[in-house]
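Incident log, structure service

09:12 report received: a user says their structure output differs between two submissions of the same chain.
09:20 pulled the input from the user's history:
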Amino acid sequence: MANINIDKNTHDKYQKLELEGINNVNDFLNVWDKPTKKAYSAIKMKKNGYCPFLSKDKLCGIQKKYGENYLSQTCNRFPRREIDFITNKFVTLKLACPEAARLCLSSKNSMNIVEDKLYNKKSISVVTKEYKNGMTQSGELILNKFYKLLQNKNINYINSLVIIHKLLDEQNFISLNLNKFEDIYNFYYQEFYKTEIVAFDNSYIKLSLLEDLIPFLEEEKKILAKYSIQTGKFFELMTSAYEELIERFDNPDGAAENFNLINDRYVSKFENKNKHVLRNFLLNEILGYSQIFTCPTPPCRNKLYITLLETAIIKLLITARCSKEQRIPTLDDYIDIVYNVDKSNGIFISVYPGNEFYIKKPVKKIIDKIDSNSIFNSVIFLCS
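09:34 re-ran on a clean worker, output below:
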């Protein structure tokens, strides 16, 4: 479920809208309990998760009839996601737009950096000279290694993430010893690039995640209902996945056996031939929040963990669809599921000023059941 916030000026303009199929625009606008100028109200999504102001051809009816100046601040930027580093901007896409999801996932080259001021042909630069210090420089170094590792199809993306996380763990030391960065990177690269990260059957913990999330989602659904906000397709996908992968089996062993069978028979056949799909998703999401690398505080790092949790959920939903329909997934399946997961990822987190991400306590409790000492270990086990 994605809230589309409407600023006060736009809310007032929308009172004059005359759109086909809309008798009263306020039927689709929910004024917040504590409205502000920037977030005065929110658009109520339809039951299918779509915006009520879409035209029959799935285009924005407001922009189509009244022009771009009538769009809210949120819609005017969507689906662009801009990270502003004072004089530099890093732009990716929000995959809550189905066309953005298609563009991101379809092409092997869609996550190539487009040359701009950010890119000097050798590396990605997200901090200008005036703001460079040991921490931001080390962040840029790690960010560039992340980008190159995820683009390398010869290395399992799970191994790449482990290497990067080891560098993030060492970032304080690296920031004081930038000249030793390559040595540290090479050490972890040699240590982990071929290592089997998960050497056990992790189907049980993946299914346990799905089972534990269902009660949480039911509670979230009640909260959203108080504001007349539709939960959209994501909740339906999760419930259907639970029924297909867990509920219909008499015991956990039967569910795990089916889960592994479906992944071996169907899912792996697609992913082995289309390694770019999940890599592109990870690159888009993590590069879109580059503060992960330049700001070592837990709130910023939480975006990395949430992205890996989303990856695990995407894989669960793909497996459920393949199990129900007994077939190899298609690119359209991934686009549909990524779009719906990304559109609803706000239910797992609270976001504060400065893009500080906090994982909601019930979700953190579910993740901690896997490894209470390391949230990274927990999410990497889930998305492996």
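09:41 both user submissions now match this output. Likely a transient worker issue. Closing.
09:42 reviewer note: Residues 4-77 form one domain. Residues 117-121 have pLDDT under 50 and may be disordered.
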